[in-house]
Amino acid sequence: MLTKGKIDRKDLFWLGLLAVFAAIPVTPWFNHSSFAQHVLIQVFLYSSMAQAWNILGGYCGQVSFGHSVFFGIGAYGAGMAVVKFGLIPWPGILAGAVIAAVVAVAISYPCFKLKGHYFAIATFAIVEIFNRLFMVWYWVGGAIGLDYGFTQPGWKNFVWYQSKVGYFYGVLLLFMLVFGIVRWIERHRFGFYLRAVREGQETAESLGVNSTRVKLSAMALSAFLAALCGAFFAQYNYRVDPPMVMSLDMSMKFVLITILGGLGTFYGPLLGAALLIPLQEYTRAYLGGIGGGVDLIIFGLLIVIVVVYQPKGIMGILDRILNGIRRSRSGEGGK
Amino acid sequence: MATFLQVAFDGLLNGLLYALVAAGLSLIWGVMDVINFAHGEFLMIAMYLSYWLGFIWKIDPLISSIAGGAFVFIVGALTYRLVISRTIGKSAMSALLATFGLSMLLKNICLNRFSPNFRLLQDTLLGGKTLDLAGIIIPVPQLVIGIFALALLFVIYRLVNKTRLGWAIQATAMDKEAAELMGINTENIYLLVFGLGGACVGIAGGLLPSYLAVHPEVGALFSLIAFICVAMGGFGSIPGALLASLLIGLVEAFAGFYIAPVFKYVAVFGLYLAVVMVRPRGLFGW
To answer: With an 8 Å Cβ cutoff, is B229 touching chain A?
Structure first.
């Protein structure tokens, strides 16, 4: 099971996919429309966020609705470094991610003893508390938030104004990092621990898995990666304020994209974001004026349908189709 | 001292409003172990219904509340049939996520149809009236809602504990399969409980537009507060939910008045965390 260092067909597919993604900016379609660039960047950002959440929620089975807190701390890390201290964002990004991981462990250590809905509601409560505290914490900008001034564009400051290609490669690096870590986890001992805790905490413990430590490490890693996504979000929007990053709606995006794509699967977060983000951006762009909220009506309906009829998400549908093809092929081969 | 009493009264009245909103949620949670995330949106629907009845036909919210209760009963029953009944037996989170989708759907349909404007009914029977009780000012609409809340909680409590239907509901909550073997149609019980939970919040929503403005986001905060009331009170315990609602109302009022308005929800949510850290299944939980 533990195939370390070997490259199999799945890896080849994955590396090929990355190569295709990396080549997107040379296509004329990409250069033609900055809106398409924006949508693509959002797809990669949100799939990274969902994948970060998937480590804890999908592989480890601990459904947290509090990830916007860590996302927000990451965004504030970058924002504070640039706006308050006048530095380049990189030390702030790193500091924000480390603080997010520490905060995550400190919060979840007591919360993990809560079960089911009590845990879910506790994570809602934590988001609301952080949101309101950041609103009145004037050192970090309060309700007004932090607005980026003009800095020299480029990788050093991680801002670009004229072209989005820099952001595209930035988010692709983030995407590769998050998905790469999950790919590694999937086949490493830690991944088996995660799934063991998800399937049955008591059973896992009886086999010698320290479930508290596993859950806390998954939480720390998940929060660290979510914070990196938050930092990118701040750099991309040139500003950060509490409702933008630390809200229940943002938290739900982490969860819903993963659920839509397929909980606890490697490609699920990418598929969920690839369906949802273009839907959201294009309906907003085309229907924005006449029909406020149409994108969210469709989104809401989609969530209800997926949860009720296809709890395994898009991955579940794909699996069924692929199995069907495979079966009909082998059936023909038998004739 | 008068200020202290005034703040305490305001807090208690708000707490009773929360209890009225939380009652239906508590019933559903207790019987089906389902969190209805669209609970606040059910409230919003009833508020819109009551607002439009009052605006077009000049019907007072006191009467519209009956229509609100009936309408949301149907909405609740439909929600159960179309969504919830298909998530029973799957992961505990699936009902929550499905109803979250439903809440987005309802909220944005109202946003799309009725615009995000705040709407308040003018010239209602109770609107704007106050009682002066030895220097303490009590607004009449809130007082009436408080009385409604106590009456409704009493009725639900009696219904669940003292009637044959209530025993069937309790049996279903304790052990679904055993209840089925005893000849209880659990499917109908679930449908009824979801409808009743909706009716409670529908009555609350019907009463509200005489002093609280209707807008598509009005349900969001009520949902969260209702979750916290119910969870803090303990798994499906109606007295627990009442006690927790009153506590939350008081904490909200005192923190808002004596510390700063922005801290009132920090205090409320902090209280929830503090309570469940000590009692992980709520005050009256078992």
So the answer is: no
Determine the Cα–Cα distance for residues A268 and A273; give it in Å rounded to an integer.
9
Residue of B nearest to A122 (CA): B273
Q: Is the CB of A135 less than 8 angstroms away from the CB of B116?
A: no
A124 and chain B in contact, CB less than 8 A: yes
Asked if this assembly's ipTM is beyond 0.95, the reply is no
Residues 6+ away with beta carbon under 8 Å from A139: A84
Kindly report, residue by residue over B260-284, the tens digit of the pLDDT. 888 888 999 999 898 888 888 878 7
Extents of the domains making up chain A: 9-247
B71-84 residues labelled b (16+ CB within 10 A) or e (exposed): bbbebbbebbeebb
Residue B156: CB atoms within 10 A of its CB come to 20
Cβ B190 vs Cβ B32: under 8 Å? yes
Q: What is the mean pLDDT of residues A272-288?
A: 83
- State the first-to-last Cα distance of chain B, in angstroms, to the nearest integer: 39
Q: How many CB atoms lie within 10 A of CB B161?
A: 12
Yes or no: say if B276 and B230 are a contact pair by the CB < 8 Å rule.
Answer: no
Looking at the complex, report in whole angstroms how far the Cα of residue A124 sits from the nearest Cα belonging to chain B: 8
From the candidates B90, B93, B230, which should be mutated to test the interface with A, based on the most A CB atoms within 10 A? B93
